[in-house]
Every structure is written in structure tokens, then in C-alpha cells.
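Q: What would this chain look like folded?
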Amino acid sequence: MNLNLSTILSPTQVPPSGDDLPWQAAIKLITAITLLAAALVLHSGRANAQSMEPRAYSNAPVGMNFLILGYVYQKGNVLLDPSVPVKDVSIEAHTAVAAYARSIDVFGKSGKFDIIVPYSSLSGSGTLGEEEHKRSMAGFADPAVRFSVNLW
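A: My prediction, written as C-alpha cells:
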């Protein structure tokens, strides 16, 4: 059986010549890539993070109370972009932490409840142009309340 496409299809339905097909496929591919890139760039998703501390999920007998005290001292120079007109920047920080934790029973699983209160004292100095500047501040940092449950 011999079929002629021009007799079956009207002139508006005749497929394009072989030269037009790669060009149209290239345009479709570029359009799809552009739309995908725009969707990824314009998507304002939320960034998630977590804080993994050692022994955050360690088992402890139910009903145990913990009082935690800590101290951190930091001193050093601050590295800045060379184009910034600030030079010789250094800081000194003292941070004390007080925390209370209690191990609890959560539906047959071990859990823990923590309250953490940090206090910091920070002093810094740097040179802007020819003038030296100093700044000191002290106060409570953001407290944290944490509830954790071991699922295993």
C-alpha cells in the first residue's frame, strides 16, 4: 500500500522539512533550561540548619538533674577585605554559660529538657583611617530552651 502524506494531511498539517526540526528542538530546550533556571533562582526556599552537640541525645536515668557551667575565652585579630578602610581590628571575648538539664520519660522513651543561658563580654578595637576606635559591650546572649527525645 502506497500512501502519500500530502493526500492524507492538509497543507497546514504537513510536517516541517528536516532542516526545521533541530532548530525547533534547540529553541524548546533553551526555553526549558531558562524556565528551570529562573524557577531555581526565584524560589525563595527556607534554609534549614541544625546544632549537633556532643551527648545531646545520650541516655541518662529518668529523673536525673544536671547543672552545667562553662567558660570560653577568645582573643584574636579579625581578617577583613583589603578594600575596607579599617585596619588592625582585634577582639577579646569572655563568655560564661549556665545550663540546667533534666532527663524525663516521654511515652516510654528517654528524653531531656534543657535551659541554657549565656552571658558575654566583648571588647574590640580597630583603626579607621588614622583614628583608633574602641568598643566594649556586655550582656546576656540569646537563651535557649531545648526538648529532645531518643527515638531508638
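The helical segments are 5-8, 20-42.
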